[in-house]
Amino acid sequence: MSVNKVILIGNVGRDPEVRYLDNGVAVATLTLATSERGYTLQNGTQVPERTEWHNIVLWRGLAEVAEKYVRKGDKLYVEGKIRTRSYDDQNGVKRYVVEIFADNMEMLSAPRQAGAQASQPQPQAQPAQAPRPIDEVPF
What we know:
Elements: E1 6-12, E2 17-20, E3 26-36, E4 39-40, E5 46-47, E6 50-59, H1 60-69, E7 75-88, E8 94-107
Parallel strand pairs: 6-8
Antiparallel strand pairs: 1-3, 1-7, 2-3, 3-6, 4-5, 7-8
């Protein structure tokens, strides 16, 4: 048995880019930043904050929701699978891209008010109930 499951909570790095395939299926891509706080070791060594950037791919209904409601800076909960693909760049060098194909997405930021501009900071809402840690999920 094997499992390919990713759970991320982070901030959207750029507005979603949405395109529609010839058959009308929506596909959205966005970046999500997750950060680990910096800390100081007992010997005084400081470990800086570390931010990871994730490429998220949303299909169909999730893509349409992202197109309408998700903006740069929003906090998202994303569940999905890791997928790796490769391509040859213009110099013939093989490049790899790691993407998260989302199965589920929840918006954790407060809804925007009508007419509010995306560049204005939005208040952050606390989720009604945080997702359960994976070790508490019954199988």
